[in-house]
Structure formats: structure tokens, C-alpha cells
Amino acid sequence: MKIPSRLFVPSLAGAKLLDRMICCVGALAGIGVTALVGLLAFGRDASLPYLVAPMGASAVLVFAVPASPLAQPWSVIGGNTLGALVGIAVGGVIHDPLIASAVAVSLAIAGMSFGRCLHPPGGAAALTAVLGGPTVLAAGYKFALLPVAANSAALVALGWLFHKFSRHSYPHAAVALAANPHGTKDPAPETRVGFDTTDVDAALEDIGETFDIAREDLDTLLRRIELRSFARRLGDPRCDDVMSRDLVTIKDSSPLTSAHALMLKHAIRTLPVVDDHGRLLGALGLRELGQQSKLVADAMVEALTSVPEAPAFGLVTKLSDGKRHAVIVIDGERRPVGMITQTDLLATVAHYPRAASHEQ
Prior knowledge:
By secondary structure, the protein is mainly alpha-helical. The protein has helices spanning 17-42, 54-64, 73-93, 97-114, 120-131, 134-139, 142-166, 197-207, 215-233, 239-242, 256-266, 286-289, 296-299, 342-351, 353-359, and strands at 250-251, 270-274, 280-285, 305-306, 326-330, 336-341. 52% of the residues lie in helices and 7% in strands.
């Protein structure tokens, strides 16, 4: 019998095999060190276990899906601890294990929901408190603190340290929507068209389901999808298809007055700043000309850069922040080989060959 290959496709969007292997290493270290900390703190002969089973499920969330709202530090520590507290309280009142287990998990979900710390292993912590036997019963509410809260805090700390090296955001911070760079009440340019946050809320209400993704992350994801779809419809030209190639540059050792003169002569708003070997050092715009500096090197700012083979429409977000007006295209040695301005992108949208065919 042939087994469908789709059964082996990662169920999480964005999941990659390398990421999964890395998270396995993280879980190995996380659980191992958490257990070691508990062992050193409580000892092998302690009346309470030095590691509780719900930590295994917490490790899956912390190391495999660190962007999940269910995996954030307060969710892990608060959810597990609250679940254990509820389980202890219910077990002390209801002595039938079957009934106590059902009530404990139910109340743990309610408590975590109101406490904004929903964490699936918190339900397991509640069950552990109910079914843990005489050792947990004798410990009473101490069990929620040691080892549950202690294990959770250690796991979160190790997750934070691990993701510093894995380059994942933990604690996860959603990418904030761009603010208006001019300080007015208008939305930022990139958020004025298309959907807005009220549309996201309405769509979630229409579907009527709970998704394991922060609303802000969902907003960012949808906007990136819009941009990708836009680029695909227009053929996704590369930077070297649309960039200007005859660049006007200036050396960092030049006086700022020379930069002003070049901008006026060529009617441009951005000058790439290069060193004596032609390598890009920064950029100079109209805003920088107003500084009191005498040399270009003192006034220049970090340049927005791209490479020739990069998708041109991928620069839309960078060039709609209201602060920069051009992206400098560089080669492998950081030498400027082209420039793409806001005008270049507008012209590409209007005239790129496949755009016309989609408008007909």
C-alpha cells in the first residue's frame, strides 16, 4: 500500500527540516539543563520530582514554534503554574480521580484564558497535580512552585538563550506596522491601500476559529502575501532590469558643498558615498545637506542596499517608509552598480511588459 507523501509534510506553515533539526538540539539542551538544575536544587532523594512531565510539551512549543503566543514566557510560566495550582485545589476538594481530572483541566483552561497565559502543557500540569499520588498530595501548593514554576522558569531562560543563537525571535515580538514618518495622523504609505486591521478582525470573526498566531503577525504575513502576489502578477523583474546604471557618486572626503552642487546639477535626491576604491560607504540625501557638517563623511547615513538579482518589487516596503528615496544596488565587493528610486519603481509598475497583459 502506498503511503501518501502528504502525511510527511510539516503541518506548520513555514516549517523547514533544518529548523526542526535545530529545535531538536534546543530541546535536548533545554530539558537536559532544566533537569540538571532541578536535580542540583532538590537532590535525588527529595520528596518532590526535580522535573515534571509537562515540561516536555512546553519544550516543543518553546523550541519548535517560538513565535506562537502559546510559547511566550508568561504563557509557559503562568500557564504551567496556574494549571498546577488549579489541579492541587481541585484534588483537595474532589477525591474521585476521574471527576477531579476533568474538572481540573476544564478550570485550568478557564484560568489560563482569563490570565492571558493559555499554554497546552498547563492542562497536563493540572492533571499531574491531581494524579501525582501521595507525594504531590503531601506537598500541597508547594508543588506548583517547586518544581513546576521553577522548571518553567528554567526552560524559558534556556529558550531565550538558545534563540539568541538560532536567530529566532524569543520572546517573540511581532513586526510593528510602519508609523507615519512625518508625524501626522495619516497611516504610513504602505498601509494606506489594501486591507487594514479592522478587515483582519472582521475576517477572523467571519471564520470563527482560533488560530495559533498573533494578530500582528497575521497582519504582517498578509501584507507580505499581497506584495508577493503583486510581484508575481507583474512578472517580478529583478533589480538589474530596472535600475539606473550611470551613477553619480561622491567620495567621503569631499566637502558637503560639492554634494549639494552635484544634486542640483543632476536633479537627484540621493548620492552614493564611496571610498577611494569605489566601495560604498553610505548615502547622502537632501535631509543630510541641512547639517552643519563640512565633509560628506560626517553627514552621510547608512545606505539602503540590494543586489542585482534581487526582486525589484521587494523594495516597495523599503522605499515607502518616507525616509529614503533610493536603494543602491551593489556587487559582491560593495561597489555601486546601480540605483533604484521611487520613480523607477512607479515606472516599472506602469510599464513592465506583463502588466499590460494583465490589464487587458
